[in-house]
């Protein structure tokens, strides 16, 4: 009911905007979409918004990009990427609960198809191909961009649904800058963080430390929300007992550093490191025995970069070393330890000319992993050459780009990955962009080498993505800024790898599924500066149809059915008001039915959550104090993203953030 | 331009409406068992569900009416069964439902399906074996013990140490033969003293045990592909504890779920396909009894009333199982859908 009401409001708003637009002369220059996300007042009171410098940013023509701005990062500085992206993007985050495993899904893709890229390096595990978004503190990034569609030609294996880009951005002014965060949340959660930036003409240094610990005994209703086509029982949430999570505590300690040295304007040296340790209990699913499951994750990520820029030519040499350690233990199986290391080297060259740009890159990657379930050491060598050519026409209003990638895995070539994208600015307000790309995902070490189950004959998953976007942005009556994007996409993936159990209950990976995903996305943002008041609203709307297109066995009932844990619709509506540094924001989140059986005869009901936050920004000279209180799950919704993995009822957050 | 903008917003409005239309919740229907239904005219199907999803169900097929009732436990008792329904046993006119990952046994009337209590405190229970009116044994995946359940109080009263993954058990006289999937031995427990008293070397990974018409026991082992140990089928004299005959499978074979037919003259098992063998055969059958290519046969059982062989196709293990009915010649008589991952049949 509430959802329908919100949609009606939205339609009315859009109708009003449409009417206004039709009668007004467009008299303002097009705004950068990122600046439109922030209300003007917040631009006054908060540090300037900087577009994160995504790797190969000039060569993503035609791909839809969504930026998480500084205001949202500040609002979520206690949270992980899991909560941030779940609340503020079109991703569906499959969360097992607060601080528990959370994996992203884009446009009907699964977690294996969505890399997290840190300064251009893919952080997907070589062992299982996944990233756990709950292990990424939002505080450590100054810029996050979500790229939809497949950037496989540039970023390689695994980027089939989209990519999440994390960037570190230092202040542009010389001197000492910093940020101190302290926060607390319901269920004995405490967060503290500090960032220090120091910049001279030749040096830029940054240090970031973030710690968080929580008992995390969050409250939930003990009730199964699973629905079946053969049962007409209605869920009686009010009659369910309220319980508190057990064995859900966690601790995080993260330390990130960056050193940049510019001896001359032509040369730049950068060294970055990210060391993090997470300890967490893994609570049991509803009504199961607590096995005292515990997981320790330790990561060491180091990368160095050298840039040479001379006129229109740029050379970029970078090397990254990544070490992931994971220890799992529980009362039944004892302990299991796995460790993987990657060394990745890139050599990028860029050249700009009057009507275009060229990029040519080489990549060399060596992965190695150990696990008690592998027969020895698992190793893999990848080498790739990829290049992009971009040309401008019509006074740069028409951009086209062609990219190609050839990769070899242990000396064996995989098919060439082409990509074509375009953007056409029809006028200052309206643009059309599109992209056609091929994508692939290599089998992971677990797929290939898991004892008995591993299948060394697996083929890479492969697919094609197409998308088309219409972007419209304008300023009405000098104060109302409007930004809208409509996107349609189509995606086919062949040889999709899934682990199918055999009669002994041992799962074995097979290339047996073909998936067809198609959908529509709509984003809009409106802000209105009226004197000292700023009103702003935004919406993200997503329709995803992702179906299995191949019979896996005789009379397979999953044929042409929606993939499990892939909601067909998702809506996020936000609205807020800003006055003299006070900002009140309300956001409403609706996630549609998620099927949990491949024949679509079992499902989880839709859920909607709301959150409200109130913040006060106090600016004194060059310092800023932001005090923020937030209520999550305002209406106490009982919901589960994963079957029998309860999410917390209403909970609270308070944070103080001091920037100097 | 204005037209284009209007089209865009109309498209957006239609998109919202379409998304609403596309997210319809599927229709639901339920068939509640009649009060007069009784086990004498049907069989139970244990649908184990998916690990940690709490979606285990118990189906009941009414043979007289030719109707399947799904999720009968939840329908009657208004609560879900739990996680991974491994097996069901009827003893002393009481049904015991072993919920493996819930670590419990639900007790139920086999006639009315009404719950009669719960036995808790197991670690990872697998099979229930009634010994006498006072006690039963329960095997376990992780506990390294056989639990002794007091059937008067429905509580675990003691445990018998037995290292490894204990699986199917068989009562012969006062001896309980216990298979063990992590051991090379078949263990023997004195059901009077509750002591582990003896063992028989059967090769690695025994999981199925059954009895034939000549009162010999048949034991099926899984072998171990990493250790190059072949799966085996043994015929054991339970009185002398001597193995009468042994049959070797290929090292990479995965035979499982050995059962005998009601007459005790034929054996059936799954090894990708369904195999059948006379109990006095001298060699393993070369060809399957029924070809089930492109299926995932996960359970075998008998409809003892109609004398049909039942096989469960779990398909991709994340959708409803298909129950296949065969006559004694292996002709497919029909099929119907049951719950997710049907793993065990029980006919009275």
Topology:
The complex is a heterodimer of chains A (660) and B (348).
Chain A: H1 2-23, H2 33-37, H3 40-45, E1 65-68, H4 70-75, H5 81-88, E2 92-95, E3 102-105, E4 116-118, E5 121-122, E6 143-148, H6 152-155, E7 162-167, E8 175-185, E9 189-199, E10 203-214, E11 219-221, E12 226-228, E13 242-244, E14 250-261, E15 267-282, E16 293-310, E17 313-330, E18 334-353, E19 356-371, E20 378-393, E21 398-409, E22 412-413, E23 417-425, E24 430-441, H7 445-449, E25 461-476, E26 480-501, E27 507-530, E28 533-548, E29 569-579, E30 582-591, E31 594-595, E32 602-604, E33 607-620, E34 623-632, E35 640-642, E36 645-646, E37 651-659
Parallel strand pairs in A: 4-7
Antiparallel strand pairs in A: 1-6, 2-3, 4-5, 6-7, 8-9, 8-37, 9-10, 10-14, 11-13, 12-32, 14-15, 15-16, 16-17, 17-18, 18-19, 19-20, 20-21, 21-22, 21-23, 23-24, 24-25, 25-26, 26-27, 27-28, 28-29, 29-30, 30-33, 31-32, 33-34, 34-37, 35-36
Chain B: H1 2-22, E1 42-47, E2 57-62, E3 67-69, H2 72-77, E4 85-91, E5 94-99, E6 104-108, E7 115-120, E8 125-132, E9 135-140, E10 145-150, E11 155-161, E12 166-172, E13 175-180, E14 185-190, E15 195-201, E16 206-211, E17 217-221, E18 232-237, E19 242-248, E20 256-260, E21 266-271, E22 273-278, E23 297-303, E24 308-313, E25 320-326, E26 332-340, E27 342-347
Antiparallel strand pairs in B: 1-2, 1-27, 2-3, 4-5, 5-6, 6-7, 8-9, 9-10, 10-11, 12-13, 13-14, 14-15, 16-17, 17-18, 18-19, 20-21, 21-22, 23-24, 24-25, 25-26
